[in-house]
Amino acid sequence: MRILKNIPHPYLKITVFKHQQTLSIKFQHQVYETILTFRDGEIKDEGSFLSYLPNSSFIHEMEQRIHEIHKSRMAVLNKFNKTG
């Protein structure tokens, strides 16, 4: 697996990886991470796709999902710690 690109973002660490016939995008913030993998053939023009990503709404959607994961994590910790 090799790093193709790091995408600058004020909140997330975004890394694009290439491994054999797949392209993976890893979104990280503190203890949270999400990885999306695209198989060979799903992206017709890899260069255009990588140019498109930094300014796309897709990045904002992933940021929102990580916020939701954080809220879920905090809710389960609060519930457990109150009853445990």
Give the helix proportion (percent range).
40-55%
Kindly state the number of beta strands: 4
Estimated radius of gyration: 16 Å
What form results from the Cα inertia axes? elongated
How many distinct folded domains?
A: 1
Number of helices: 2
Largest beta-sheet characterization: 4 strands, antiparallel
Write down the secondary-structure element order. Answer: EEEEHH
Task: Name the average pLDDT.
Answer: 92
Class computed from helices, strands and strand pairing: alpha+beta
Assembly state (oligomeric): single chain
Task: Tell me about this structure.
With 84 residues, the chain is an alpha+beta fold. The protein has one domain. It has helices at 46-52, 57-83, and strands at 2-7, 13-19, 22-29, 32-39. The chain has a four-stranded antiparallel beta sheet, covered by helices on one side. Strand 2 and strand 3 form a beta hairpin.
List the helices and strands and how they pair.
Blueprint: E1 2-7, E2 13-19, E3 22-29, E4 32-39, H1 46-52, H2 57-83
Antiparallel strand pairs: 1-2, 2-3, 3-4
